[in-house]
Amino acid sequence: MQLKPNAYRLNETVRGVETMTRFALAVLALASGVYTYLGVRGLLDGSATFVFFAAIIYSAAVSVAIYAFWSFMLRFVPLVTSGVQRMALFLTMAIGCAMIMAMSSWLNAAALAGSAATEQHMAVTLQGYAEDLDNAHANALAAQSLLPDVQRAAERFSGLAADERESGALTGTTGSGSVVQLLTQMGAQMNQLAATITGSREEVAGLFEQGSARLATMRELVSTPGAIEPRADSFQAEAVQLTAVIAALQQTGVAASVKRAAADLSAGFIAPVADGQVGDLALRQNQVMDTVRNSVAAQSAALSAAADEILATPPVEQRRFVPLSSAEAVLRYWQDFIPSWAGAISIDLLPVVLVLVLMIVNDAMRRDSESLEEAENITAAEMLRAMAIYRQMEAAGIDVATGKPKPLTEPEFQPQPEPNEAPAAAENVAEEATVTPIDAAQRKRTDGPRPA
User: Fold this and answer.
1) CB atoms within 10 A of CB 51
2) What's this model's pTM, rounded to 2 decimal places?
3) On the chain, which terminus has fewer CB atoms closer than 10 Å, C or N?
4) pLDDT (tens digit, 9 = 90+) per residue, 34-66?
5) Cβ distance 245 to 318 under 8 Å?
6) 118, 228 in Cβ contact below 8 A?
7) Are 218 and 239 in contact (CB under 8 A)?
8) Domain boundaries defined on the chain
9) Cβ-proximal residues to 159 (8 Å cutoff; 6+ apart), any chain
10) What number of CA atoms fall less than 13 Å from residue 440's CA on the CB side?
């Protein structure tokens, strides 16, 4: 048959690549062990000697486990033909793959992308600190929006005082009386409030400059090449200083001070006694002071409302930089390092492809050699014995295919066998003629070897 040579070639090819398969499996197990060592070394604490030997032992155990597991799978999965048994082996292989990923693959990913993942963590934290600094600076400067209103009110009171003193615009009588005194007092309070707001601007600008310098240093630590551990330590120190700057910025806001000052304008309003001695001047002074009181109350309410809007802005929550190990960073930012994860997992699970290839090839060999299963197991002695029987059948004139005597084509003189020997010889030849090479092989295995 033509299928037998194909199965033979497949079998020889499988034997030819067996050494290469073992070598490839050993190299993959060794590579996984090396990257596992690099990954687990960053997770251990203690002396350098302890970390070294602990990481070596763990990585060696991982390499041996991977090599042994895939050796078992390469040996047994291709040989099993039953559907239930093969599904059980597949389930076992899936459980083994999950265990390999749990004990090795994520550490391999940490070794491949650990530094990059830690830098990613630092960059994300840096972005958050930059947003916090901007928000704190904006909140601190929000009170500066009240400065134009305060300055305008101060100018208004000062202008009215000047007009009353020079021309008597409010009471009709010139001079520095009670109204001028009151307006001058209100203008002075507004100027003091404006000076408070203006003075905070310089302090806010100085703190923002310090925070910007801290951010610049942190950006350099993120982008500078080199070992990640010392850079992460310096980054953490800068983050602590920046947190203090952000907290100071939140304390420099003068919105609360403006609100208290605005409330004092109305609640602490003290009107002087009318000092007019001529005619109804005192009455006019009281009327003007009542008007000033109402104006101050309105100005106080407006400033308080504006200050409340500023104070209603949520404060910046304090951010804390939490350093991560390389393995933790890879797990947290896994979506940014999918190629590294794919490479780490492929190192451990690539033998799955080899197992499937051997399974398919073995199925093909079994299918091609199914009809010649007994012939594939025949020995050389059995083959020689079968050939001798074949020659005896030809010499005796027996058809090999049917086991019956061949018909004579023409009458010939046939010597008559002796009476006692002819029937026995014919029976022996007929019995041997019905024995095929496969039956001879089976009889040998059943009855045992024949004596020489």
Assistant:
1) 16
2) 0.61
3) C
4) 999 988 887 887 788 898 999 999 999 999 999
5) no
6) yes
7) yes
8) 3-114+336-371, 117-324, 374-447
9) none
10) 22
